[in-house]
């Protein structure tokens, strides 16, 4: 393939649909930015790039199979990317190659939470523990009782959009036969703890980082409008 544009077009059009976890990991590395589900740009999502046999399937007994969902943890554990709610509040992958630019740009418009604020308490709790699944972090921050889960999730989502929190892995409950089940729980941490502080440093200005990312996405997605790209990176 001669370019990233060709690569994305081939995967999107079915010439090279993703059939395996290694192919998904390669796709993240090639594209740099990959939303998990629908992104607002036609075909630009891991879900849209999956081969037919790897898409979500629900069986008559109520059970389901979704390779994409099961693979995302393995892609993270390989260490080549970062995962979180980064794209207009929706989850996706960013390769390490592009992480410092993304971090640089997002942090420029999202200053550190004010000391003593709810966001600060969440971050402090997470840093003190290293990593925590969402429900344990919620309990540790005293978000218990009716309607508190959705309120807490909103704070965590904003912290992910601001690159203060990322997903380290996924933890699944186990049944009496030792089999994992369900959609799993996000194991949250900070990018500095996950990658090291140096991986978050960038020599460019925030605007230079934005321009570099926007030009990269425009190369991959020639049919996308400037507004669509801006919305992904905003």
Salient structural properties:
three-stranded antiparallel β-sheet; 47% helix; alpha+beta; 234 residues; 8 strands; single chain
Give the topology.
Blueprint: H1 4-12, H2 21-31, E1 33-35, H3 46-49, E2 57-58, E3 64-65, H4 67-77, E4 81-87, E5 90-95, H5 96-109, H6 118-129, E6 132-133, H7 134-140, H8 148-161, E7 166-171, E8 185-189, H9 191-195, H10 206-220, H11 226-233
Antiparallel strand pairs: 1-5, 2-3, 4-5, 6-8, 7-8
Helix pairs in contact: 2-4, 5-10, 10-11
Would you kindly provide a written description of the structure presented here, covering whatever features stand out?
The protein is built from 11 helices and 8 strands. The chain has helices at 4-12, 21-31, 46-49, 67-77, 96-109, 118-129, 134-140, 148-161, 191-195, 206-220, 226-233, and strands at residues 33-35, 57-58, 64-65, 81-87, 90-95, 132-133, 166-171, 185-189. Helix 2 packs across helix 4 (67-77), helix 5 (96-109) packs across helix 10 (206-220) and helix 10 (206-220) crosses helix 11 (226-233). Strands 1-5-4 form a 3-stranded antiparallel sheet, with helices on both faces. It has a 3-stranded antiparallel sheet with strand order 6-8-7. It has a two-stranded antiparallel sheet with strand order 2-3. A hairpin with a 5-residue loop joins strand 2 and strand 3 (64-65). The protein is 47% helix and 14% strand. By secondary structure, the chain is an alpha+beta fold.
């Amino acid at each position: 393939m001669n370019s990233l544009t060709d690569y994305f077009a081939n995967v999107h059009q079915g010439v090279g649909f993703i059939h395996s976890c290694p192919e998904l990991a390669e796709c993240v590395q090639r594209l740099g930015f990959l939303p998990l589900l629908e992104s607002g740009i036609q075909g630009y999502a891991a879900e849209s790039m999956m081969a037919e046999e790897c898409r979500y399937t629900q069986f008559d007994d109520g059970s389901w199979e979704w390779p994409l969902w099961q693979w995302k943890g393995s892609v993270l554990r390989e260490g080549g990317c970062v995962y979180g709610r980064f794209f207009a509040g929706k989850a996706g992958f960013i390769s390490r190659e592009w992480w410092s630019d993304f971090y640089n740009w997002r942090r420029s418009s999202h200053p550190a939470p004010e000391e003593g604020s709810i966001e600060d308490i969440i971050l402090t709790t997470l840093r003190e523990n290293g990593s925590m699944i969402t429900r344990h972090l919620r309990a540790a921050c005293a978000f218990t009782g009716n309607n508190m889960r959705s309120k807490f999730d909103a704070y965590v989502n904003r912290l992910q959009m601001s690159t203060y929190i990322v997903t380290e892995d996924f933890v699944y409950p186990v049944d009496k036969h030792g089999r994992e089940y369900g959609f799993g729980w996000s194991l949250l941490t900070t990018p500095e703890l996950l990658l090291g502080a140096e991986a978050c440093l960038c020599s460019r200005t925030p605007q230079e980082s934005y321009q570099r990312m926007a030009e990269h996405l425009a190369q991959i997605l020639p049919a996308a409008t400037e507004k669509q790209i801006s919305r992904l990176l905003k």
